[in-house]
Structure formats: structure tokens, C-alpha cells
Design brief:
Distance between the termini: 78 Å
Protein name: Glycogen debranching enzyme GlgX
CATH architecture of the domain at 4-139: Sandwich
Structural class: alpha+beta
Family: Belongs to the glycosyl hydrolase 13 family.
Keywords: Glycosidase, Hydrolase
Number of strands: 33
Strand order of the largest sheet: 14-15-20-21-22-23-24-25
Helix content: 10-25%
InterPro entries: GH, GH13_cat_dom, Glyco_hydro_13_N, Glyco_hydro_b, Glycogen_debranch_GlgX, Ig-like_fold, Ig_E-set
CATH superfamily of the domain at 4-139: Immunoglobulins
Number of helices: 15
Pfam family, one: Alpha-amylase
Shape: elongated
Length: 707
């Protein structure tokens, strides 16, 4: 029996079509045809514009008959189209009244807001035809990837070791020695490296379709083209960046990305996407028409009473996230990536914008954030907020969570940096950060896993640059060194930039080792910037958003050159994984019945820390009972931290009679003696006191004397 919906009711120039289905939005392959559905509240008419791939002129323009409009949705099924060989867009007509927020222009061809793939930037960096008025073209993709039984991993938050990376930067340098540098496929070749390092979760900078040529220009400093390199300027929320795919020129970017995800999951590695729902690539009043502006400007963007764009993103416009239509689009988008791509979680850029109402004011219970927290399809996805925006709303520690949202803990970054460089008043804050920031997350049962701990990320200095530069060096960005933050809390160890001085270089590596042990021992979820583990540098540039060159690309020769750092990172990650007491999720678990608190603070005298002091020294002891954590024996970990430029003696807490202290980490020692692997730790000769060198950290563990 034939279905009635495969029979056309209309025809134009040999193209057959009929009334379509309003849901789902976007283009959907249906029996014998393709269903097109698009929303516009204030439009008076809409045309479907069809192209053969890469052809400048359309082969058909089909107006939606009035009866094909259902509410504010235009829906049409077109028959006998080869979905693999067409591109499409819309022409939408309606009022042009900027003061009322309407910018309709029927001469513009618009990309589908729900396009699952996009043409126009298939090969990274290939200059487009700027005379083509339709730069970003909607494409149709049939979701038929063979997952072979794979599914999201659903690792526990407290067990994550997050590794932030940029798809292109990670393997673009010739030293990466991969087949297709700078692509999704190339990351697969680096999976053995990630596993050796101990990474079980990667966080990718934006991979939604964006335009690398947005605001591009030639640098006056070196003649190189400056690009929209990081991609924090979305063109299409449902479409993966084709220019990141080795197969993008063949239209296979969807399958290539899915294959990467499948291989990561097979190897026990989750994937989190950095998503940008705070603004789009359409900019302000002078920006281009790409999609949303022409479809329904008043619905998609936050507008002033005069019709101008609110700019809480710092990028020209602000998405109207808590408008019900936009809220549903964001939800549809995340559900699509979670279900069709098996994504494990999302990090939301400038997420405080998602908490603003339609006039831009912060809300106590933002409906979008609540919806995402309780959505059934996203129920196992990690939700991570960058809990601030460019409009001055800073919500670290107060971001609405419903027990689901974690936050990039910017205060962890700042407080640990201050302690490392020897600020006097840093110790009290460091105590909070190492505990998992109970001052920020010790409310509403949030727990330590609300805190994504990091010291470096894509935005700012790398770890090596943090200990090599006092000032930013962003001249290459072409903005007279005015871009990027001046608030780096960095210290160059006595010399600005590279040096051959062995003492300075030893101190720099020691400071990096201090940083990573504090990061990995702290409760909360650690995040490492890719390349930090082998001393990657951006040559002092703390805002490399536009640099598609060796400033941003990771130099893999440094793995060998700084193998001591790589080995140290690898061992400290393994150390964290070995001790469950370092991964406690609750703040109310500090007290035990075994005679020792689960976490305790010490000065240079055991059990005697002055919280009002301006000391540069502090000790912390973790106690993990065998009964609670299922270990063979009770475990003690003691960490002595000295950020002073002088050596200090630390009196050690006394262990139960059958146990002794053994050295696991001493950052003041040369490579090979800075870390002792499990089972090879060195017993202290003096069990009562230990000397901690200047700007050093020592970690001790307990062992039975007969071990």
C-alpha cells in the first residue's frame, strides 16, 4: 500500500512538491523526498532556494504556498532530489524596520538555522569567492553512521582528567608526523599518546561550523594572514566544521568526526565540546546576513528598545537564549549532538549569558539552564559553564546548577597562580581550592565536582609561558599589544622569555611541576591545556585567537626535548588515579571515625596552621580509610608546599606505629628523582621533620614498615 505523503500535489518547472511536516525543523530525508521546515514569526513569505553543489546560481526557487505555512512555520516536501548533490537556502520576506528589530531582506539567501552540514568552507584557509552572495550553504546529511554498538562512556565526573585541545593546533605542526595534519582524523593517530599520558577526556575548542575568514587581515608585523582561528563565532550550530576534516572536500566531515568519537570511546576517552550559544557570526548592525538575522532578527537576538544589539558577548550581538524559540533550538541542538554524535558533555562559552532574560537582566532560575539540567536525553551529559560573560556578570560559585552544572573555576586558576609566584596573602585561598573550593560550592549539595580546576587554558598563557613572561607579547595580533588580559599573575623566574641560564630553566620547570601537582592533588575535576605536558610555548602571546601558525601549533619535538616534564605529568596523573581520597565528591566527608580527619591543614609545625598568617608555607594531609575506600590499608598523603624563596623545615604529622613516611614527589630534585613511581617511593630517614627547598612541593605517602 502506497503512502499518501509520497504523492506530490504541486509542480514548478518539473520539480514536484507537497505540503511538508512542520517538525522536525531543518531538512529531513523522507520517503521519496526531502522535507524542509523553517520558522519565522514575522515573515510574510518564504522561498526555498535550491542549488547544485558549488554552483553559483540556483536551479530552482520555490515559493512556499500560503497553505504550506502552519503557524509561524513554513514546511514543504520536495521529491526526487539527490540529497548528496544539492545545497539549499531560504529567501525570507517581511518588514524592514530596524527600530522594531526587523531586518527582513528578500534579496538575501539565508542558511538554514538547523542545517546538519554546511558548504562554503570545506577546505581550511582556501579563499572563497567573495562575489558569491551565498557564502554559507545548507547541506543535507543522512545520519547512517555504523557505531558498531559503541555508546557514550558515562565516566564519573570525579574520575575525569580533562585535556583541552584545538583540533587544528594539535596536529598541524610538521613534527606531529600524522597523515592528515590539523584534522579530526589526525587526533585518532594521537590516541595512543593520550592513553600513555593518562587522559580520559578531551575537550575540543569549537567545532561547530564557523568562518575562519571572519575579520581576517594581513599582519603588519610579519605579513601573515590573521584568522578567526579559535572559532568562537558560530555560523551553524548543528554542522561540524568541514575545514577540520581531511574528507571535508568530499562532504564527509560528519562521518570523520563520528569515527573519531567512536575510536576515542573504544579507548576509554570521553569527548566534551566547547559550545558557543552566547552570540553568532552575524555581528552587530553592520555585520553580514548569514542566517538568524534574516530569518527572524527580533526573535533570535537580544535587542535594545531602539532595536540595537545588546553586546554581552563582546562580539557584536547576544543570542536571545531564554526566548522559547531560541531555547528550543539550543535544546534541539544539544540533543542532536548527544544522540547522533554520542557526545559526552558540553562546555558552554560565556555561559552567564544563558542566564539573562529577554531584556538582558540576570535571572535567579533561568529556564534554559533548568531545561538543560533536567532534559532526559542530556541526562548523562556533563554540563560545564564558563560562569561569566563580557557584560560583567561573574557567577563563579553562584551559577544556577540544580545539582547538574559544573563550572570553570577561574578563582582556582587565579589563587594557585598567586601562590606559585609567592604572593603573601595567597595561602588562605589555596586551602579552599585544594579542598575543592567549599567556599564556592559548599552549598545546595553541589560538591567538589562542581569545580573544573585549571591553571591554564586556551585563553591566556601556556604553562611554560606562565613561568617565562611577566608581560603579554601580542604584537603579532596586530592590535598594538592592547588585546589579551594584563592580569596574568605570571612570573618569569628572573628573565623575560627564553634563556640559556640553567638555573632559570631549572626553576621554570620546577614551577611547572609545582603547578601540576597542586592541580592533580586538589579535589575537583582537573583540566590540562594540551602541550603543557611538554613545555609548549606561544612565545608570550596570551591571546592567540588569530594565529594559524607556529604560535598556536604544538611542536611535538618538545616531547623529546622536555621528556622530563612529560614523564612527570604522566606520573602525577597516575598518582591521582591511584588514591580515591583525592577524588572525594562531598564536603561533608572530611570527618572520620578512625582518629584522623580526612583532610587536615598544617603549618611548619604539625597540626598547627595559623589561618591569619601571611605565610608562604602550608601542609595538607589526606587520610583515606581502608574501610571507606576499599583499599588494602589506611592511606595517608601529606603535601608540604613552600612558595618562599628560602628553604623551610616542616614538622611531620605522626603516623600510626606500624607506618612510615615515604617520598613520592619532590619538585626540588632533578628529573628521575622528582617523582618515585608506586612501589619505589623512598623512605624518609627523619620521620619527624623534612626540609622543603625554596619554591618547592614535597608529597609523602604512608607505608607499613615491612614494605
Amino acid at each position: 500500500m502506497l503512502r499518501i505523503d509520497v504523492f506530490p500535489t504541486h509542480q514548478q518547472n518539473g520539480i514536484k512538491f507537497r505540503r511538508g511536516r512542520a517538525l522536525p525543523f531543518g531538512s529531513t530525508i523522507v520517503p521519496e523526498g526531502i522535507n524542509f521546515s523553517v520558522f519565522s514569526r514575522y515573515a510574510t513569505s518564504c522561498d526555498l532556494v535550491l542549488f547544485n553543489k558549488k554552483e553559483k546560481e540556483p536551479f530552482a526557487i520555490i515559493p512556499f504556498p500560503k497553505e504550506f505555512r502552519i503557524g509561524n512555520v513554513f514546511a514543504m516536501t520536495v521529491f526526487d532530489l539527490d540529497f548528496e548533490d544539492i545545497e539549499y537556502g531560504y529567501r525570507v520576506d517581511g518588514p524592514y524596520d530596524p527600530a522594531e528589530g526587523h531586518l527582513y531582506n528578500k534579496e538575501r539567501i539565508l542558511m538554514d538555522p538547523y542545517a546538519k552540514a554546511a558548504g562554503g568552507r570545506e577546505i581550511w584557509g582556501i579563499e572563497p569567492d567573495w562575489n558569491n552572495p551565498f557564502q554559507h550553504r545548507s547541506r543535507i546529511f543522512f545520519d547512517d553512521f555504523e557505531w558498531e554498538g559503541e555508546k557514550p562512556l558515562e565516566l564519573e565526573m570525579e574520575d575525569l582528567i580533562i585535556y583541552e585541545l584545538h583540533v587544528r593546533s594539535y596536529t598541524k605542526h610538521q613534527t606531529s608526523k600524522v597523515k592528515h595534519p590539523g584534522t579530526y582524523a589526525a587526533i585518532i593517530e594521537k590516541i595512543p599518546y593520550l592513553k600513555e599520558l593518562g587522559i580520559n577526556c578531551i575537550e575540543l575548542l569549537p567545532i561547530y561550523e564557523f568562518d575562519e575568514f571572519e575579520n581576517s587581515k594581513i599582519s603588519k608585523e610579519n605579513g601573515e594572514k590573521l584568522m578567526n582561528y579559535w572559532g568562537y563565532s558560530t555560523v551553524g550550530f548543528f554542522a561540524p566544521k568541514a575545514g577540520y576534516a581531511a574528507t571535508g572536500k568530499f562532504g564527509m566531515e560528519v562521518d570523520e568526526l563520528k569515527n573519531l568519537i567512536k575510536e576515542l570511546h573504544k579507548n576509554g576517552i570521553e569527548i566534551i565540546l566547547d559550545v558557543v550559544f552566547n552570540h553568532t557570526a552575524e555581528g552587530n548592525e553592520d555585520g553580514p546576513y548569514i542566517s538568524f538575522k534574516g530569518h527572524d532578527n527580533k526573535t533570535y537576538y537580544l535587542l535594545t528598545p531602539e532595536g540595537h544589539y545588546y553586546n554581552f558577548s563582546g562580539c557584536g550581538n547576544t543570542l536571545n537564549c531564554n526566548n522559547p524559540i531560541v531555547r528550543n533550538m539550543i535544546l534541539d541542538c544539544l540533543r542532536y549532538w548527544a544522540s547522533e554524535y554520542h557526545i559526552d558533555g558540553f562546555r558552554f562559552d560565556l555561559a552567564s549569558i544563558l542566564s539573562r532574560d529577554q531584556e538582558g537582566a540576570p535571572m535567579a532560575n533561568p529556564p534554559l539552564l533548568e531545561t538543560l539540567a533536567f532534559d532526559p536525553i542530556l541526562g548523562k551529559c556533563k554540563l560545564i559553564a564558563e560562569a561569566w560573560d563580557a557584560g560583567g556578570l561573574y557567577q563563579v560559585g553562584s551559577f544556577p546548577s540544580w545539582g547538574r552544572w559544573a563550572e570553570w573555576n577561574g578563582k582556582f586558576r587565579d589563587d594557585i597562580r598567586k601562590f606559585l609566584k609567592g604572593d603573601k596573602r595567597a595561602v588562605k585561598k589555596v586551602i579552599e581550592r585544594i579542598q575543592g573550593s567549599p567556599d564556592l560550592y559548599g552549598w545546595e549539595n553541589r560538591g567538589t565536582t562542581a569545580s573544573i580546576n585549571f591553571i591554564t587554558c586556551h585563553d591566556g598563557f601556556t604553562m611554560m609561558d606562565l613561568v617565562s613572561y611577566n608581560e603579554k607579547h601580542n604584537i603579532a595580533n596586530g592590535e598594538d599589544n592592547c588585546d589579551g588580559t594584563d592580569d596574568n599573575e605570571s612570573w618569569n623566574c628572573g628573565w623575560e622569555g627564553p634563556t640559556d641560564d640553567p638555573d632559570i630553566n631549572f626553576l621554570r620547570k620546577k614551577q611547572i611541576k609545582n603547578a601540576i601537582i597542586l592541580l592533580l592533588v586538589s579535589r575537583g575535576i582537573p583540566m590540562i591545556l594540551s602541550g603543557d605536558e611538554f613545555g609548549n610555548t606561544q612565545f608570550g602571546n596570551n591571546n592567540a585567537y588569530c594565529q594559524d601558525n607556529e604560535i598556536s601549533w604544538l611542536n611535538w619535538d618538545l616531547v623529546k626535548e622536555n621528556n622530563d616534564l612529560f614523564s612527570y605529568f604522566k606520573n602525577i596523573i597516575a598518582f591521582r588515579k591511584a588514591y580515591p581520597v583525592l577524588r572525594v565528591t562531598r564536603f561533608d566527608s572530611y570527618h572520620t571515625d578512625a582518629g584522623y580527619p580526612e583532610i587536615s591543614w598544617h603549618g611548619t609545625k604539625a597540626w598547627n596552621f595559623n589561618y591569619d598568617s601571611l605565610s608562604y608555607t602550608v601542609g595538607v594531609m589526606f587520610f583515606g580509610s581502608a574501610e571507606k575506600y576499599g583499599t588494602e590499608d589506611d592511606e595517608f598523603i601529606y603535601m608540604a608546599m613552600n612558595s618562599h624563596w628560602k628553604t623551610h623545615g616542616f614538622e611531620l604529622p605522626v603516623l600510626p606505629g606500624e607506618k612510615s613516611w615515604y617520598v613520592a614527589v619532590n619538585t626540588d630534585m632533578p628529573s628521575g628523582e622528582d617523582f618515585w613511581p608506586q612501589g619505589k617511593e623512598q623512605k624518609l630517614k627523619n620521620q619527624k621533620k623534612i626540609l622543603v627547598g625554596s619554591r618547592s612541593v614535597i608529597v609523602l605517602i604512608s607505608k607499613k614498615n615491612n614494605n
